[in-house]
Amino acid sequence: MEKRELLDRVSMNEQERLLLGRVWDKYDQCRRRNIPVCTEFLSPQEQAAAERLLHMLGAEDGFVLWGGYEGAERCQIHFLPDWETEPDREAICCLRCTFYEPGKLTHRDFLGSLMGLGLTREKIGDILVSDRSADVIVSSTVAEHLLREWTAAGRTALHVAQIDPAELNVPEQKTKILRDTVSSLRLDSVLSVGFSTSRGKASEAVESGRVQVNWTDCQKSDRLLRQGDVITVRGAGKCKLTEVGGATKKGRVFITVERYL
Q1: Which of 95, 156, 166 is nearest to 127 (CA)?
Q2: Is the model's pLDDT at 157 over the cut of 80?
Q3: DSSP-assigned letters across all residues of 78-106
Q4: Quick one: which of 103, 185, 195, 202 has the fewest CB in 10 Å?
Q5: Which CATH superfamily is domain 90-167 in?
Q6: Distance CA 54, CA 35 (A)
């Protein structure tokens, strides 16, 4: 299959097609020159699209996702030559921004100030906000610029310094565990448990295009889920089907869903 045809087939829209074209170029560069190559930071949805492409290319290994710490949401894809097993740790830089007024700044404030300095979203990884500081993961190519020029977020002065990834202050993710039985592992059934809503409203959310499964748009209420699948609802958050148990005497299935608060 020609490259253009495959990109058209795997892409959801033109923007995704351009992204996947760049990912493919990185993959080819690693294979042709046998050198480590990495992408910029990708969102979970972009990572899912890239993994679909790589699967179609037959690349089941030889790459890793890395965002600075285990469980990072925004990650780079590191393509590894046959002599390498670990991602290039120097491809990212971790910065700590401290300020004096507790609770003053939000994720949006930090992102806005970074964009105001001319950075594109792909240069910025996760932004981990605490009470008097925020740890920000960025591409190493922009680190020096930020250490020199990033002095404020809005009207709040910042002190910015580089830290080791091991020093990252990762906030604890608050979750709620929900257990119930469902007639089947249909998307609308699991969604109704995870978001404590009726199955009818869950179906409406799916069919309106607001729902993603594993970061990919899904408008089929009857899609069958598997343990480990992540459901995201635009504007409402996400949940994960963490466990699928046995069946009741009436044939209903025990499930455990973890809702991210």
Answers
A1: 95
A2: yes
A3: EE--TT--S--GGGEEEEEEE-SSTT---
A4: 103
A5: RRM (RNA recognition motif) domain (3.30.70.330)
A6: 18
Q: Looking at the whole model, is its pTM more than 0.85? A: yes
- Give 209-226 pLDDT, tens digit per residue: 999 999 999 999 999 999
Is the pLDDT at 176 greater than 90, yes or no?
A: yes
- pLDDT at position 49 over 90: yes
Closest CA to 206 of 176, 229, 232, 185: 232
What phi, psi does 77 have (nearest 5°)? -100, 120
Domain boundaries 175-260, corresponding CATH code:
3.10.290.10
User: pLDDT tens digits for 102-137?
Assistant: 888 999 999 999 999 999 999 999 999 998 999 999
DSSP, residue by residue, 211-258: EEETTEE---TTPBP-TT-EEEETTTEEEEEEEEEEE-TTS-EEEEEE
> Is 243 within 8 Å of 253 (Cβ atoms)?
no
Nearest to 153 by CA among 191, 127, 178, 171: 127
Give me the torsion for CA of 139, 144, 146, 147, rounded to 10°.
130
Fold of domain 3-87: Ribosomal Protein S8; Chain: A, domain 1 (3.30.1370)
**Dist. CA 49–CA 43, nearest whole Å:** 10
CA dist 90 and 105 (Å) reads: 28
Asked if pLDDT for residue 94 goes beyond 80, the answer is yes
Task: Report the pLDDT value the prediction gives residue 133, as an integer from 0 to 100.
Answer: 94
Query: What would the two tokens of residue 89 be?
Result: 């740790």
